[in-house]
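Lecture 7 notes. Example A: sequence first, then its structure tokens.
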Amino acid sequence: MIRIGIDIGGTAIKMGAVTREGEILGRVTRPFAPSLPFDGILDVLAEGCVELRAAVGGAVSCVGICSPGYIDHAPGVLV
């Protein structure tokens, strides 16, 4: 099973597929603009995950996301 890590930065979204041992199997980078609507961000993330899975094969066991900002727990949003 593969794990996917996602880094949402100020200008790019970088994604990588790794093994449990941390071996990098594949990478995807997409441009990102903070003005992109929420649904657009979700589309970029989903398409990148699908592309990684197709490129490296295997089932995805988990996805981790890091992003600048903080989580506002009351409404459940990343600020």
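Example B, a different protein, same format:
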Amino acid sequence: MELTVELTRDAAAKLGKEKTYGHFINGEWVEGETGNTIALENPATRKVLAHIQSGNASDVARAVEAAATARATTLALPD
């Protein structure tokens, strides 16, 4: 692949976009129940780096249930 001005601009645009990250539950990235996000800022510059999902009690319950299921599955494996 040849490095061109267009490719460089495209790469810079992708790097400059703020991403939104969800919760990693049961092996996959999922949104929080409310869909609300929290801005993740660089404390030195106050620049927003990304957004993260804001979790609630239902999200925690979903994660705990997935973890309990995974634990039970792991314990059932032969030694």
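Note on Example B: Residues 4 and 10 are 10 Å apart (CA to CA). Strands lie at 19-21, 23-25, 28-30, 37-41, 48-53.
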